[in-house]
């Protein structure tokens, strides 16, 4: 399980780095085109917005998977041993339900609704933009399952 998690971490890190580099290049191009050549780009604004959206959702899933997201430590630190592990499992289950209902189910619904909408400059279907919501939801679900399995094995190891 840990090798799957490490592989997924690496893939997401590379994708986020590539998207960040792309955003930097397109942003620089947009500034140079507008202020140096006085010829603003018509597509760079959309490219930046949609690339940033994808990068944000993928980075959020990555940070969640690494368990480096913001948490209320003052509550979690009060529970040690089995109680702390149980609290972690409960929080993972809550996030799993949220990811399943909001990100995967809701994201799939909005993606289907936007199939016929087209972006103004790029002329691509908005469903490609919204597809990141269920994609990131599935990634979060994968991380959830891995984390729950790890916590349950910790719980079983601690009870012996």
UniProtKB/TrEMBL annotation:
Protein keywords: Cell inner membrane, Cell membrane, Membrane, Transmembrane, Transmembrane helix, Transport
InterPro entries for this protein: DctQ, TRAP_DctQ
Annotated Tripartite ATP-independent periplasmic transporters DctQ component domain residues: 23-151
BP GO annotations: C4-dicarboxylate transport
Bilayer disposition of the protein: Multi-pass membrane protein
Keyword Endoplasmic reticulum: no
Compartment(s) of residence: Cell inner membrane
GO molecular function, one term: transmembrane transporter activity
Any one GO cellular component localisation term in the record: plasma membrane
Transmembrane segments: 12-32, 47-64, 85-107, 127-146
Record bears the keyword Ubl conjugation: no
Family: Belongs to the TRAP transporter small permease family.
Record-given protein name: 2,3-diketo-L-gulonate TRAP transporter small permease protein YiaM
Organism from which the protein derives: Clostridium thermopalmarium DSM 5974
Taxonomic classification: Bacteria, Bacillati, Bacillota, Clostridia, Eubacteriales
